[in-house]
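During the no-cost extension, the postdoctoral fellow (Dr. R.K.) reprocessed legacy sequence entries with the updated structure-token encoder. One reprocessed record is reproduced below for audit purposes.
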Amino acid sequence: MPLKLNVGVSQKVGLPNYGSVGASCNLEMELDAGLLEKDLDGFHARIRAAYVAAHQAVHDELARLHAPSNNAIGSPSPARARSSASNVTTRVNGNGSVATCVQSDRTRAPRPATANQIKAIQAIARRQNTDLVGLLRHEYEIERPDDLSISQASELIDLLKNQDNA
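Re-encoded structure tokens follow.
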């Protein structure tokens, strides 16, 4: 009897003027029930791979929606935010899997990363010998973790933790 695995990732990023833009991706797939009994590590690897794929889809969609502006680097310009107001749904079928990714847009200002998030990012990056400045430049087009929004900091912590577990 097959197992049904459902993995979902959702993220929302704040925009100026009380705005926000979000993306979510849910994957559903069938797995062999024997994985639980015979290959628990393989089962966990399949879950982790599904999560990483969903996380990357959300990250890519949010990156597509972001255009740097002069007053808030890494956040979409007002014109770009208005143009992304409609929902987009993508379904991918194959090998019994279905993926649905949606974006939404609301008006809300971004909150800055918390001091604890910044400390965690610095500690994890230091432990992994990660080039934090290079990572921040590549992923968010910023120089310092202090310039991250609270959701970007959360995303970066998850990304760093996933690298730690890989």
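The first strand starts at residue 2 and ends at 14. Residues 67-99 have pLDDT under 50 and may be disordered. The remaining legacy entries will be reprocessed before the final report is submitted.
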